[in-house]
From TrEMBL:
Domain DAC: 123-285
This protein's name: Diadenylate cyclase
Native source organism of the sequence: Methanococcoides methylutens MM1
EC number, as in UniProt: 2.7.7.85
The keyword Transferase belongs to this UniProt entry's keyword annotation: yes
Superkingdom of origin organism: Archaea
Family: Belongs to the adenylate cyclase family. DacZ subfamily.
GO molecular function (one): diadenylate cyclase activity
InterPro entries per record: DAC_DacZ, DacZ_A, DisA, DNA_integrity_DisA_N_sf, DNA_integrity_scan_DisA_N
Top EC class, one word: transferase
Pfam families named among the record's database cross-references: DAC (PF02457), DacZ_A (PF21754)
Gene3D superfamilies (alphabetical): DNA integrity scanning protein, DisA, N-terminal domain (3.40.1700.10)
Keywords: ATP-binding, Manganese, Nucleotide-binding, Nucleotidyltransferase, Transferase
Length: 299
């Protein structure tokens, strides 16, 4: 059976499974096209750079077991990477409100293998982390902060990559343990203009993310300050080597208060979440999946 026929058979099964499960979406990683299949389920396509494992098919070893291992291990790694990519893409789309909760059907095609993946969004590590934070921060506020963070990670501002941090919750303590080095752009503004739950305020937040310092945001989503510096002792903070002062101080303030920190790295656009001085989440920037008809318009 040739590759195209195999892909078509697999795609047909994926659509039928998705319809039986009433999946909120089908997410495709690879070159498989589902436009020929009739379904009301939204189909998303994710872009992932593939690595060929052809070199692993050439071996100078006489040990058949080692030869087979060299073939299988790269396939497993690549498939696992694509599965994780689909799971993260689904979780992000759910957080920003594009996908309802439910069971996602993923369809993966690499140069060497294909697979159908069933993924329950509620079991995503990203969703579970959100649930951990709910005791301290309103879920909608955490979702809004992460949505803005993903947007900054993806597009930066004015064509430039930027990094910033949102310190969420325990506002009084955070304000006491920080200071303003520039005029606070949010001072004196009405609540409706400082609320991150109001989408029309997101552009100003992304604009002020260009400033040095961090944002201080209340449990209810009101921005108290931007361009603020944290006065913390970063001793004993154990974070990934190579991260700058913003990440260290953000982690430290969560150790000393009940706040939660969301950081965006200027280099690479990695989004991290800290609580109690420890990293809860590290999510590298990924391109958002493209809805099927939108993909056709782009081609």
């Amino acid at each position: 059976m040739d590759t195209n026929t195999t892909a078509k058979v697999l795609a047909g099964h994926a659509v039928r499974i998705a319809e039986e499960l009433r999946a909120p979406a089908i997410i495709v990683s690879g070159e498989i096209e589902l436009e020929d299949f009739e379904t009301d389920i939204p189909i998303y396509y994710v872009t992932r750079r593939q690595k060929s494992i052809i070199d692993n098919l050439i071996s100078d070893t006489v040990d058949e077991g080692d030869h087979l291992k060299k073939i299988i291990e790269p396939i497993n790694r690549e498939t696992s990477g694509n599965v994780q990519y689909i799971e993260e893409a689904a979780a992000i789309e759910h957080i920003i409100g594009e996908l309802r909760e439910g069971t996602i059907v993923g369809l993966i095609q690499t140069k060497e293998s294909s697979a159908i993946v069933i993924h329950e969004i509620s079991q995503s590590p990203l969703i579970r982390i959100l649930q951990e934070c709910e005791e301290r921060i309103e879920p909608e506020v955490m979702r809004a902060a992460l949505t803005i963070a993903f947007d900054i990670a993806a597009s930066g501002r004015e064509g430039h990559k930027i990094g910033t941090a949102f310190i969420l919750g325990d506002t009084e303590e955070v304000m006491e343990r920080s200071h303003q080095m520039i005029l606070n752009p949010y001072a004196g503004h009405k609540d409706e203009h400082r609320n991150i739950l109001v989408k029309k305020n997101w552009e100003s937040i992304k604009e002020f993310a260009l400033l040095d310092g961090i944002f201080v945001i209340s449990e209810e989503g009101l921005v108290h300050a931007a361009g603020r510096y944290l006065d913390v002792d970063a001793k004993d903070i154990d974070i990934e080597k190579g991260l700058g002062g913003r990440h260290v101080s953000a982690a430290a303030i969560t150790r000393d208060t009940f706040a939660i920190a969301v950081t965006i790295s200027e280099s690479g656009g990695t989004v991290r979440v800290y609580m109690d001085g420890k990293e809860l989440l590290c999510l590298d920037y990924i391109e958002r999946p493209v809805l099927g008809n939108a993909r056709q318009r782009l081609q």
